[in-house]
Amino acid sequence: KILKVNLTDQTTDVMPLDEDMARQFVGGRGLGARLLWDLVGPAVDPLSTDNVLIFANGPMTSSGYQTSGRYSVSTKSPQTGTILDCNSGGSFGMRFKNSGYDAVIVTGQAKTPVYLDISPEGVQFKDAHHLWGKTVSQTTEALAEKNHNVLCIGPAGENLVRFAAIMNDKYRALARGGPGAVMGSKRLKAIVVSGDLKQEIPNPELMRFIRYESGKMLKANPVTSQGLPEFGTAVLVNIMNTMGIFPTRNYQQSQFEEADAISGETITDTILVKNTACWACPIACARYTKTEKAEGEGPEYETVWALGASCGISDLIAVTEANYLCNDLGMDTISAGATIACAMELTEKGFLDSNLRFGQADLLAPTLTDIAYRRDLGNELAEGSARLARKCGAPELSMTVKGLEMPAYDPRGLQGQGLLYATSNRGACHMRGNMIGAEVLGLPKLIDRFQYRGKAGFVILNQHVSAVIDSMVLCKFINNAVSDEYLARALTASTGVEYSTGDIHRVGERIWNLERLYNLREGFTRADDTLPRRLLEEPVKGGPAAGWVVHLEPMLEEYYRARGWDKNGVPTPATLKRLGLDNL
Ligand code: SF4
Fold first, then answer.
1. What is the side-by-side order of every strand in the sheet holding 286-290?
2. What does the longest C-alpha to C-alpha distance in the chain come to?
């Protein structure tokens, strides 16, 4: 069932989950996109009272299947203006499901700060005056009780930083695109969930079998049984750097001479205390670390890149403490680091008057704090790098797609990844399908990373698989080991609806096209399916990818054709009919 919460008049309503909608869009990201289509149109400012936050779990959440403790949020992004969804681990998702709801739709705007207490007994609106201004750890500790889970925003969300995150279980983030700012605009400080309602599994025997088989595959796969548990996601630092695709100093170089200092291997040797894991996850890729001054979870690969190599910084302690700070202030580490890197280049090239320079580790913490509280230059950086660079008269120095900062893989040495970034519907993102598996790691098979003709089909399939995994609300790392066929059977077991591999790919395609329709309705066009000029025109200067730019146009032509979209990137009527979207 779906809980509707109106913050303006503090009323609630419960409605049944539409079974047909659930079958077509599954849950999480897909369900969020379908609901958002009806609820938030193009006239709505993302930071206005009319935007909504849709928190959703999925049919497998809390089933005990590997990585099934996650949940997602969908909204219109205040950073990009596109449709947005993010999902997060920890154990909040499991408890959210056990409170009795498949989704919670938050509408309106509270007059004064509030938090929500959701349990099987109902919903309570509670005064949050005493929490407003508090950090994520302070808020979580103030609200934490046994068998309760907390999500909240920090000062960045309250101050409407456009890349503010929503944090759950203290360290886990709904990070990208600014959902924390939407929550801040609603004066909603936190949500506490509790409950231990057990989930009915329609086919428990099949679920037991698939769980057992999936466990065997996860153990047998070197990425999920060794690479991720032993070194965390930062195991990728040395791999990407060696291949010449580790963007450095705001993408000016593609190799970082001091990469090893911020690598997963160095983290394990120096600051790692223990591995941690999200609920029901045997992979345990997360790291609990400690410096002399602080401790917490992180840093992940994207974070050591954004706050490290991207800013020309190799001081692992400074990067790790900057990561803790982002978590506590409630900010996306990728956009925060990449925006600082952009400001560093703007300054060095004379477009911005600031003291930021590449390599200045001591400025990381004060700059991040200024961003979260919108002080001085921090107020400009809080708008994200696209708005900052445009204001400085050098928009080409913002490494963004559709306004979202690029992650840690230089697509000039990964052509498919370039197409993926350009067409991603929430802006540049490695979580909307990922070509690293095929173009770098050889999963499921190695393909030529420099080849650009014939790449569109791979990218499209990856985008569909990512959309359906996000809608089952599982962790994408599971798909390194567990094939789509097994995921389809797991979905069958947990819904009682028969899904084949082709069926789940079609669900992914339906979601992708719906998100595309949403962005088109917002005014996005083919011109937005592009990359920063640097990646299209400036060849990589050295290393294994030397001489390469992204050959986007031929890939885009192929991509539109293969998708059944016209030359402007608009789904044709036949495509929409095939996907059951022709009534929208
Ligand atoms: S692989 Fe890592 S991020 Fe994914 S569910 Fe497990 S611990 Fe969480």
1. 272-276, 286-290, 295-297
2. 65
Q: Are residues 105 and 37 in the same domain?
A: yes
Tokens 């009272």 locate to 49
In short, whether 284's Cβ falls inside 6 Å of ligand 1 is yes
Whether residue 391 contacts residue 399, with contact meaning beta carbons closer than 8 Å, is answered with no
Q: Do 393 and 255 share a structural domain?
A: yes
Domain count, the chain: 3
CA of 91 to the centre of ligand 1 (A): 11
Q: Of ligand 1's atoms, which has the minimum distance to the CA of residue 90?
A: 8
Check whether residue 353 and residue 431 sit in a common domain. Answer: no
Judgement on whether residues 237 and 354 belong to the same structural domain of the protein: yes
**pLDDT in 10s for each residue of the chain, 584 residues:** 999 999 999 999 999 999 999 999 999 999 999 999 999 999 999 999 999 999 999 999 999 999 999 999 999 999 999 999 999 999 999 999 999 999 999 999 999 999 999 999 999 999 999 999 999 999 999 999 999 999 999 999 999 999 999 999 999 999 999 999 999 999 999 999 999 999 899 999 999 999 999 999 999 999 999 999 999 999 999 999 999 999 999 999 999 999 999 999 999 999 999 999 999 999 999 999 999 999 999 999 999 999 999 999 999 999 999 999 999 999 999 999 999 999 999 999 999 999 999 999 999 999 999 999 999 999 999 999 999 999 999 999 999 999 999 999 999 999 999 999 999 999 999 999 889 999 999 888 899 999 999 999 999 999 999 999 999 999 999 999 999 999 999 999 999 999 999 999 999 999 999 999 999 999 999 999 999 999 999 999 999 999 999 999 999 999 999 999 999 999 999 999 999 999 99
Answer yes or no: do 415 and 394 share one domain: no
Q: Determine the residue of 70, 226, 278, 478 to mutate for testing ligand 1's pocket, defined as the one with the most ligand atoms within 8 A of the Cβ atom.
A: 278
* Structural domain containing residue 150: 2-194
Structure tokens at 97: 């499901």
Name residue 506's amino acid.
R
CA of 221 to the centre of ligand 1 (A): 15
Q: Compute the distance between CA of residue 325 and CA of residue 319 in angstroms, rounded to an integer.
A: 10
Contact yes or no for 271/293 (Cβ under 8 A)? no
ipTM of the complex: 0.99
CATH number at residue 154: 3.60.9.10
**The domain that contains 429 carries what CATH number?**
1.10.599.10
Within a domain: 563 = yes
Mutate to test the pocket of ligand 1, among 67, 231, 233 (most ligand atoms within 8 A of CB): 67
